[in-house]
Amino acid sequence: YQQATANLVSAKANLVKAQKDIDRYNMLLKNDAVARQTVDQAAAAYQTAQSQVAVAQAGVASAATDLSYATIRAPFTGRIGISQVKLGAQVTPGTTLLNTISADSPMGVDVVINEQDINRFYKLQKTTNDTTFRLQLPDGSVYNQPGKIYAIDRGVSDQTGTIKVRVQFPNPTDQLRDGMSCVLHVLNNDSGDRIQIPYKSITEQMGEFFVFIAKDTIAEQRKVKLGPRVQSNVVIMSGIEPGEQVITEGFQRLRDKGRITLGAPGAAGQGGAGGKQGAQGK
Questions:
Q1: pLDDT digits (tens, 9 = 90+) for 92-133
Q2: CATH superfamily ID and name for 108-186
């Protein structure tokens, strides 16, 4: 690079000399004190000097580009880890990992949600407030910065029926670190007294969800609207009233208005639907 810079300085000096020569010969030509051929030669030398300056400038730009490859610059401000190679080690472009850098702020928290909650998170993406997302750190403390949905993945996994959501949190004090495991608390806009039933009692038909309600010895099929999962239970948003008995066992071949034999959960008879469980408000 320094050699290319020196060549440019030399070319510019030659250009200055050529400029003075052509000016001097033009003055002499007005007084017929110099041959026309000498003036033409001076003009050609001046143009040659101009071309040499352009070539030298291109050489400096090329050398600067080559020199930039010797310095690795991060595409963003962040924290760099421990180097994966030592000084003098042989590396191959595109295959050798030298180091990893992670952004400090904001930080993204990736969570996986059930496909039934997709619409809920799309709504949260549009109406997020400072209390919608709260992060619980590994030491049990609650992170004091609010989060917001940064992105929802393009599609649902056909193997797990889940989709990834990235929630973004400010990190002004570097309290969050890359790879940290945390618990994300999401505000439930439909919170309040709700009914929970065992998820195993739900049947799905053409994208709709149903349960069987015990009416004495008759099973009534009821369409329900599901809320979020709570471990092995599911919240029922509508379709069941508190105190109604939900059939939880032996309903696989049961039809609406079919006769049933009631019993304790887990003790289903062979001739009909068995276990039942009361719907409880939560």
A1: 877 778 888 888 888 889 988 888 788 888 888 887 677 788
A2: Efflux pump adaptor protein, beta barrel domain (2.40.30.170)
